[in-house]
């Protein structure tokens, strides 16, 4: 909004009454400035249009690159998922093989322990059977060897 001071500045002061001097007509500086700058603005309008065209082309290129990057990302994700399934299957097979080896080791240790137990049991049975058989025969046949023993 134009202030009073700006409005009054547009008028040139008139000289004192007397001989005719310059005519006191309001000076339209804005119009004169606009007239002076019109060629510059015309050149700038062309530059603005060129800049708008460059921006539009850059936005189109950015959109195209973004679509291509999205497609590439989808391909990468799909390949990673396929590889992860394969890696899971390989890891499962390796874990299963490790478990089978560990189970076989435990079973071999158990077989050795059972064989050692059988051997000790055989030795102990060999030592324990004759006295038991003798006592049983004594009881059944009545030889009476140990009857008077407390």
The portion of residues assigned to helices is over 70%
* Tally of separate helices: 2
- Residues in β-strands, percent: under 5%
Q: H/E order of the elements?
A: HH
Average the pLDDT over all residues and give the rounded result.
84
Give a brief outline of the structure.
The protein has 150 residues and is an all-alpha fold.
Describe it.
With 150 residues, the protein is mainly alpha-helical. It is built from two helices and no strands. It has helices spanning 4-9, 29-141. It is rod-shaped and about 180 Å long.
Keywords:
150 residues, rod-shaped, 2 helices, mainly alpha, single chain
Topology overview:
Layout: H1 4-9, H2 29-141
């Amino acid at each position: 909004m134009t202030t009073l001071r700006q409005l009054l500045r547009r008028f040139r002061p008139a000289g004192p009454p007397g001989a005719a001097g310059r005519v006191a007509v309001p000076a339209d500086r804005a119009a004169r400035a606009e007239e002076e700058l019109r060629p510059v603005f015309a050149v700038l309008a062309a530059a603005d249009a060129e800049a708008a065209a460059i921006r539009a082309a850059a936005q189109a290129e950015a959109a195209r690159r973004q679509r291509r990057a999205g497609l590439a990302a989808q391909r990468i994700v799909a390949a990673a998922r396929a590889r992860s399934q394969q890696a899971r299957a390989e890891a499962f097979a390796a874990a299963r093989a490790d478990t089978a080896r560990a189970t076989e080791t435990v079973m071999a240790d158990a077989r050795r322990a059972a064989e050692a137990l059988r051997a000790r049991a055989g030795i102990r049975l060999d030592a324990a059977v004759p006295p038991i058989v003798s006592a049983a025969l004594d009881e059944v046949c009545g030889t009476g060897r140990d009857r008077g023993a407390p």
